[in-house]
Structures are given as structure tokens and as C-alpha cells.
Amino acid sequence: MTDTAPRFPEGFLWGGATAANQIEGAYAEGGKGLSIQDVTPQGIMFPRVDGPTEDNLKLEAIDFYHRYAEDIALFAEMGFKVFRFSIAWSRIFPLGDEETPNEDGLAFYDRVLDELEKHGIEPLITLSHYETPLHLAEKYDGWVNRDLIGFYERYARTCFERYGDRVKYWLTFNEINSVLHIPFGSGGINTPKEQLSEQDLYQAIHHELVASARATRVAKEINPEMQIGCMVLSMPIYPLTPNPDDAVAVMNADHANLMFSDVHVRGYYPGYAKRFFRENGIELNITDQDAEDLTNTVDFVSFSYYMSICESGDPTVKADGPGNIMGGVPNPTLEASEWGWQIDPQGLRIVLNQFWDRWQKPLFIVENGLGAKDQLVEVDGVKTVEDDYRIAYLNDHLVQVGEAIADGVNLLGYTTWGPIDLISASTAQVSKRYGFIYVDRNDDGTGSLDRYKKKSFDWYAEVIRTNGGSLQA
């Protein structure tokens, strides 16, 4: 590690990241249809219910739908260069399979973009962030059905045509590889996970990859200056022991995740994926048009980073702990957050180097943050949160980002998850707080929704002002 603060390139895009279903609320306003989030009151890791229920905090969330101007002004006060947010597909096409979009939904995002432009903040838009319209899940079984490719292409084209002269950076699907673990939440697949065959799961994945590539092609047709990225959940994987069997287990686990970006970047399925399909009796329906579509590769690779895991070739070694929601084995050398997510700043440097060496495409860290149970206190008559633990977490990760840049990694920017308290995707709690801005809302739904700056607010503002110069290596 260097003895001085890391150097970030000029024009580095500092900011924060959110998702519509976790901040907007107004789930039935402006012509919006139901999404899969409206029937998962416990979070996307849990089974769906029959309809919206009062205990689903996402239905109101933090009311960004009505308070976006106030929140964007706070982001501007921190000095944000970029703000990542998602468009709720069911605001634009309430059912998902209509021919004509909902103008009220389109107009809402026009207003959000107006505010960002007023403050000089670059938008980074995710087209599909765990927000498949519920109708598409119930009628078509989500991405298992090839028809969704056309519905998504129509949705993407609508957004590109409406906002393409105002938005440079786009992401097609959020954490697309997470469909392996949460098929309903990630892919709108209504078939229960335990009943879903590998054949159907990987056919659904193929449909998403084709849809992503088609969106990339459409974007370039509309405005060649638009930059289209894929977005994956990153997770460095270490062998639990020096046993070569553990190293092979790591390789296989890596392949399961890296396949998604390999296809996005290279435009075809790698040999290891074909072997997996062959040995597991998976025969994908890949048309000639599909193969041609996949050659529309992305301009950059974006990813989330929260934790690392270990793998073992010993079948008797089991995952142990609530944090290993994506599989793997806990690392005995690392500490964990309150929710069991193991904290590994160096893992971020490892991932950045791995991705850059593998693809030689610009990278973008679009999620990284610490969920914690913050306590609102009063200091000199001002309500705030003394979140030194969050400052330490982010500082240590950003120092490693600086190391990766020094290693030669081409990194476009960094957006923390999430810059304002929001509803957790995995648990649907608001008490799992990530933000620099405290939102007065509780897990029982009470609270004023007032906003308060945490100690980390000024800390991050200084990091941005100094372009990383204030970080403590």
C-alpha cells in the first residue's frame, strides 16, 4: 500500500446509486403498474405474496417520487458528478407488453433529468433493476419466455428515443448474474426456484443476454454517443485452503459469474459455458438472429461490490452464516457487517484488476457501501448520525480503488450504494441504512420522512472536492 493518498484521474465520476423500487414509492401513482417488488414485502430473497400489502415499505419507500428535487439538491451539495438511478419499467409500460408507453411515467423521468441538469450532475440510468412488471412474471413466467426480448427492446427503444440526447451512460440489467440465485427478483421468473429446471433457467439467462445486446444495438442506432454497459454482481472468490481441489472449485464458481460479462463483452458463449451446458443436459435454443444480436457488445463493464467469499472442493464444507446469500464459504480471516456480509477492501482491488485484465474494457463501480443500524442523535442542536464506521469502510475501499488505478485499471467512476437511506433489496428493511443522508422512516412504516445529513455527508463531499486527495491510506 502506498503512503500517500491515491490519485484519481481527472474527470473521475463520483456519485451515488439507487433503484426506483427502493426510493420512489408512489407505487400506484402516475399510471404505474405493479412490479415484482410490489409483491415481495420481505425482500427479493423471500417468496412473493399475492399482492401489495401494508407491510411492504417499498410501496412508499422514501417518497423520492415527490421529493426528488430536495434529494438531488442534497446530492449536488455533496458535489456529485454522477447519479445512478433506475427507470421503473412498469411506470413506462404498466403491464410490460403494451404497444404504447405511459406518458405520465416518461414525464416523471423528464423532471428528474431536469433537476440533474440544473445541478450539473451526469445521469447514469439502469433500465431494469429488479423491477420486472408483475404482469410479465405472471402471464409469461418472466424471462423464461422469449417474448420478453421484444417487450424489453420496445421499452429500451422508448427510453433511448426519449432521453438519448440527455443521458450518455446506460446499464441494461442490474446484477444480471444474480438470476442464478434469485430467479423471481432478478428475472421475474414466477416458477418457484425449487421447481425451476436448469434448462429453463439458462434459457431465461440467454433471453436476457440477447435482449441486452439488442438494446445496445438500438442505442447505437439512435445516438452513437451513448455508452452502454452491462452490470454484474462481483465477488472475489478465494480458495479456502491451498488444496488444488479448492482452486478448481474457485475456478468453477468464477466461471458461473464471469460467463455473463464474457458474453456481454466478447459477443459469444465461452468454451467453459458450452462444457457446462453439455455436461448438464442443457440445450439452449439459440437462433441465428440471437448469435448475430450477441455481437453487439458493451462499451464498459459496471459492477457492484460488497463482499468476498471462499470456496472449497470438500463437499462436507458448508456455507455458514447469513452473509453468504450468494453461496460460498465464509472467510475465517475477515470481519463481517451486522448482516454477515464479510468486509474485504482488498477484494475490490482484486476484482478491478481481474476484470480489467480479462476484458480490457473501461470499468465502473456502481455499487459499494455499508448497511448498518444508524442512530439519529443531536449534536450542537443539529440532528445527525455519527457514522464513523461507514467513513472507515468507504475510505478503506476507496484507497484500494486508488491502488487499482495505480495498477493501470481504466475506471470511469464510483457510485456508492445508496447515498440516501432507502429500502433494502435483500430484506426490505429501512433499518439497514447505507446513506450519507438519514431518512426518518422506521421498519414499522412510521416516521416523518425528513432528511438529515450524517457525518459521512461532509466526509464524502470532501473526498469529491479533493478528487480522492483527502482519503487516508
Quick summary of this structure?
38% of the residues lie in helices and 14% in strands. It is of the alpha/beta class and 473 residues long.
Model description:
The protein is of the alpha/beta class and 473 residues long. It has a single domain, classed as Glycosidases (TIM Barrel). It contains 14 helices and 14 strands. Strands 1-2-3-4-5-7-9-12 form an eight-stranded parallel β-barrel, surrounded by four helices. Helix 2 (64-78) packs parallel to helix 4 (103-118) and helix 6 runs parallel beside helix 8 (198-222). The longest helix is centred in the middle third of the chain and has 25 residues, at 198-222. The termini are close together.
Could you give the topology of this structure?
Blueprint: E1 13-17, H1 20-23, H2 64-78, E2 82-86, H3 89-92, H4 103-118, E3 122-128, H5 134-140, H6 147-163, E4 169-173, H7 183-187, H8 198-222, E5 227-234, E6 237-239, H9 244-266, H10 271-279, H11 288-294, E7 300-305, E8 309-311, H12 345-359, E9 363-367, E10 377-379, E11 382-384, H13 388-407, E12 411-417, E13 437-439, E14 451-453, H14 455-465
Parallel strand pairs: 1-2, 1-12, 2-3, 3-4, 4-5, 5-7, 6-8, 7-9, 9-12
Antiparallel strand pairs: 10-11, 13-14
